[in-house]
Design brief:
5 strands
Amino acid sequence: MIQVIAGRKGSGKTKRIIDMANKASQDSKHDIVFIDDDNRYMFDLRHEVRFMNASDYDLANDQMFIGFLTGVVAQNFDVGLILIDAFKKLILLDLNETEPFFQRLESISEKHHVDFVLSISEAPADLPAFIQKFVI
């Protein structure tokens, strides 16, 4: 399953995704991974949530990012939820060009039983239709 938290800058997306990660760490039997573009919110997460700063890995394009996510899933079969904050900063593409990325993400989710939650700094109405269906 893929879920998207969308909204303009300052609308509370990061707080919401952090709250989701912390709640999931209390309720889930699976491991939780939180990926961000910097270390700013690392200490806002419960210690049970695995924090990863994606900028430490020099991800240059969407294919490297999907490979990174696949590696996260492959290295730990217990991962059940991956939360990605600041998606637009990490993907390095215009959102209209991300349909193949979302198709691969859906495939990873279904094949490996991992849920994804992404925060996207964009008004929900301005998202492409293939992303709008994931908005919560």
